[in-house]
Design brief:
59% helix, 203 residues
Length: 203
Protein backbone atom coordinates (compact mmCIF):
# COMPACT_ATOMS: atom_id res chain seq x y z
CA UNK A 1 0.00 0.00 0.00
CA UNK A 2 1.53 3.36 -1.03
CA UNK A 3 2.41 5.69 1.87
CA UNK A 4 1.34 9.07 0.55
CA UNK A 5 3.40 11.35 2.79
CA UNK A 6 6.29 9.02 3.60
CA UNK A 7 9.79 10.37 3.14
CA UNK A 8 11.46 7.12 4.13
CA UNK A 9 14.90 6.70 2.53
CA UNK A 10 13.61 3.40 1.18
CA UNK A 11 12.04 5.64 -1.47
CA UNK A 12 15.54 5.70 -2.99
CA UNK A 13 16.08 1.96 -2.76
CA UNK A 14 14.92 1.02 -6.27
CA UNK A 15 16.66 3.88 -8.08
CA UNK A 16 19.86 2.00 -8.95
CA UNK A 17 18.42 -0.66 -11.29
CA UNK A 18 16.34 1.96 -13.10
CA UNK A 19 19.43 4.16 -13.47
CA UNK A 20 21.39 1.23 -14.89
CA UNK A 21 18.61 0.57 -17.39
CA UNK A 22 18.35 4.26 -18.35
CA UNK A 23 22.00 5.25 -18.19
CA UNK A 24 21.97 6.34 -21.84
CA UNK A 25 18.48 7.85 -21.81
CA UNK A 26 17.69 11.53 -21.85
CA UNK A 27 17.72 12.77 -18.24
CA UNK A 28 14.04 13.70 -18.36
CA UNK A 29 13.17 10.19 -19.55
CA UNK A 30 15.21 8.58 -16.78
CA UNK A 31 13.71 10.91 -14.17
CA UNK A 32 10.17 10.11 -15.31
CA UNK A 33 10.83 6.38 -15.07
CA UNK A 34 12.37 6.75 -11.62
CA UNK A 35 9.52 8.92 -10.36
CA UNK A 36 6.94 6.39 -11.57
CA UNK A 37 8.83 3.56 -9.89
CA UNK A 38 9.23 5.45 -6.61
CA UNK A 39 5.53 6.37 -6.53
CA UNK A 40 4.53 2.71 -6.34
CA UNK A 41 5.28 2.82 -2.61
CA UNK A 42 6.29 6.44 -1.90
CA UNK A 43 4.09 8.82 -3.97
CA UNK A 44 5.27 11.96 -2.14
CA UNK A 45 6.55 14.50 -4.66
CA UNK A 46 9.57 15.21 -2.45
CA UNK A 47 10.46 11.51 -2.33
CA UNK A 48 10.16 11.47 -6.12
CA UNK A 49 12.38 14.52 -6.44
CA UNK A 50 15.06 12.99 -4.22
CA UNK A 51 14.94 9.80 -6.26
CA UNK A 52 15.35 11.77 -9.48
CA UNK A 53 18.46 13.54 -8.15
CA UNK A 54 20.01 10.23 -7.14
CA UNK A 55 19.24 8.78 -10.57
CA UNK A 56 20.77 11.71 -12.45
CA UNK A 57 23.86 11.49 -10.24
CA UNK A 58 24.23 7.79 -11.00
CA UNK A 59 23.72 8.43 -14.71
CA UNK A 60 26.45 11.07 -14.70
CA UNK A 61 28.87 8.75 -12.89
CA UNK A 62 28.12 5.88 -15.26
CA UNK A 63 28.78 8.30 -18.11
CA UNK A 64 32.29 8.92 -16.79
CA UNK A 65 31.86 12.17 -14.88
CA UNK A 66 33.96 12.80 -11.79
CA UNK A 67 32.04 13.03 -8.49
CA UNK A 68 32.02 16.83 -8.21
CA UNK A 69 30.88 17.19 -11.80
CA UNK A 70 28.18 14.53 -11.34
CA UNK A 71 26.80 16.42 -8.34
CA UNK A 72 26.84 19.65 -10.36
CA UNK A 73 24.94 17.88 -13.14
CA UNK A 74 22.30 16.70 -10.67
CA UNK A 75 22.07 20.20 -9.17
CA UNK A 76 21.58 21.79 -12.57
CA UNK A 77 18.91 19.23 -13.44
CA UNK A 78 17.10 19.84 -10.14
CA UNK A 79 17.03 23.61 -10.67
CA UNK A 80 16.05 23.32 -14.32
CA UNK A 81 13.24 20.90 -13.46
CA UNK A 82 11.88 22.94 -10.57
CA UNK A 83 12.39 20.24 -7.96
CA UNK A 84 11.52 20.87 -4.32
CA UNK A 85 13.53 23.52 -2.49
CA UNK A 86 14.58 21.11 0.27
CA UNK A 87 15.94 18.67 -2.28
CA UNK A 88 17.97 21.38 -4.03
CA UNK A 89 19.26 22.57 -0.64
CA UNK A 90 20.28 19.00 0.19
CA UNK A 91 22.48 18.95 -2.93
CA UNK A 92 24.11 22.27 -2.01
CA UNK A 93 24.52 21.25 1.64
CA UNK A 94 26.10 17.94 0.64
CA UNK A 95 29.42 19.76 0.42
CA UNK A 96 29.42 19.84 4.25
CA UNK A 97 29.60 16.80 6.54
CA UNK A 98 26.48 15.64 8.33
CA UNK A 99 25.97 13.95 11.68
CA UNK A 100 23.96 10.81 12.25
CA UNK A 101 21.23 10.66 9.64
CA UNK A 102 18.88 9.08 12.13
CA UNK A 103 18.64 9.13 15.90
CA UNK A 104 16.69 6.51 17.86
CA UNK A 105 13.00 7.30 17.50
CA UNK A 106 13.53 9.82 14.71
CA UNK A 107 11.79 8.94 11.42
CA UNK A 108 14.26 8.37 8.57
CA UNK A 109 14.26 10.93 5.81
CA UNK A 110 15.01 10.52 2.10
CA UNK A 111 16.26 14.09 1.73
CA UNK A 112 18.78 13.71 4.55
CA UNK A 113 19.87 10.35 3.12
CA UNK A 114 20.41 11.96 -0.30
CA UNK A 115 22.57 14.67 1.23
CA UNK A 116 24.65 12.12 3.14
CA UNK A 117 25.15 9.92 0.07
CA UNK A 118 26.28 12.87 -2.04
CA UNK A 119 28.71 13.93 0.69
CA UNK A 120 30.24 10.44 0.71
CA UNK A 121 30.44 10.50 -3.09
CA UNK A 122 32.43 13.73 -3.04
CA UNK A 123 34.75 12.75 -0.21
CA UNK A 124 35.29 8.97 -0.05
CA UNK A 125 38.52 7.72 -1.61
CA UNK A 126 37.40 4.11 -1.97
CA UNK A 127 34.34 1.90 -2.00
CA UNK A 128 35.15 0.64 1.50
CA UNK A 129 35.53 4.15 2.86
CA UNK A 130 32.17 5.27 1.45
CA UNK A 131 30.25 2.32 2.89
CA UNK A 132 32.00 2.36 6.26
CA UNK A 133 31.37 6.09 6.66
CA UNK A 134 27.71 5.57 5.82
CA UNK A 135 27.47 2.82 8.44
CA UNK A 136 29.07 5.11 11.04
CA UNK A 137 26.67 7.96 10.24
CA UNK A 138 23.55 5.77 10.10
CA UNK A 139 23.83 3.21 12.90
CA UNK A 140 20.06 2.64 13.11
CA UNK A 141 19.35 1.84 9.46
CA UNK A 142 20.90 -0.20 6.65
CA UNK A 143 19.37 1.94 3.90
CA UNK A 144 22.07 4.63 3.81
CA UNK A 145 24.97 2.13 3.59
CA UNK A 146 23.16 0.38 0.74
CA UNK A 147 22.67 3.66 -1.12
CA UNK A 148 26.27 4.69 -0.48
CA UNK A 149 27.38 1.34 -1.87
CA UNK A 150 25.40 1.78 -5.07
CA UNK A 151 26.79 5.27 -5.68
CA UNK A 152 30.33 4.18 -4.81
CA UNK A 153 29.92 1.26 -7.20
CA UNK A 154 29.01 3.66 -10.00
CA UNK A 155 32.02 5.80 -9.13
CA UNK A 156 34.70 3.13 -8.65
CA UNK A 157 33.32 0.41 -10.92
CA UNK A 158 33.14 -3.33 -10.34
CA UNK A 159 36.88 -3.63 -9.82
CA UNK A 160 36.69 -0.98 -7.12
CA UNK A 161 34.49 -3.23 -4.98
CA UNK A 162 36.76 -5.39 -2.81
CA UNK A 163 36.81 -9.02 -4.02
CA UNK A 164 35.77 -10.40 -0.63
CA UNK A 165 32.61 -8.26 -0.68
CA UNK A 166 31.76 -9.45 -4.19
CA UNK A 167 32.21 -13.04 -3.05
CA UNK A 168 29.95 -12.49 -0.06
CA UNK A 169 27.26 -10.99 -2.26
CA UNK A 170 27.39 -13.69 -4.93
CA UNK A 171 27.39 -16.52 -2.41
CA UNK A 172 24.62 -15.18 -0.14
CA UNK A 173 21.78 -17.73 0.03
CA UNK A 174 19.38 -16.82 2.86
CA UNK A 175 17.84 -20.26 3.33
CA UNK A 176 15.12 -21.21 5.78
CA UNK A 177 16.71 -22.29 9.04
CA UNK A 178 19.99 -20.48 8.37
CA UNK A 179 18.85 -16.89 8.77
CA UNK A 180 16.15 -15.04 10.71
CA UNK A 181 14.97 -13.49 7.43
CA UNK A 182 14.94 -16.21 4.75
CA UNK A 183 14.08 -15.24 1.18
CA UNK A 184 12.89 -17.18 -1.88
CA UNK A 185 15.68 -17.90 -4.34
CA UNK A 186 14.17 -15.45 -6.84
CA UNK A 187 15.29 -12.67 -4.49
CA UNK A 188 18.84 -13.85 -3.88
CA UNK A 189 21.69 -11.67 -5.13
CA UNK A 190 23.77 -14.54 -6.52
CA UNK A 191 23.26 -13.20 -10.06
CA UNK A 192 23.63 -9.50 -9.18
CA UNK A 193 26.54 -8.84 -11.55
CA UNK A 194 24.80 -10.58 -14.44
CA UNK A 195 21.61 -8.60 -13.79
CA UNK A 196 23.54 -5.32 -13.66
CA UNK A 197 25.22 -6.11 -16.98
CA UNK A 198 21.87 -7.03 -18.52
CA UNK A 199 20.38 -3.72 -17.42
CA UNK A 200 23.36 -1.77 -18.77
CA UNK A 201 23.11 -3.45 -22.17
CA UNK A 202 19.31 -3.47 -22.46
CA UNK A 203 17.89 -1.71 -25.49
Amino acid sequence: QPLAESLSPSALARVTPVALWGHEAEPVVLAAAVRTNTAVTRPSSIAGDASCVLAITLQALLGGQEPERAIETAHAFARRSGLAREVIEAIVDSMSPVGNSREPGEPPNAVKALRAVLFQLANARSYDEAVEAAIDSSPYSDVLPALAGSVAGARFGRDGIPPHLRRLLLSCRPLEGLTPQPRPSDYWATDALAMAEALLTAR
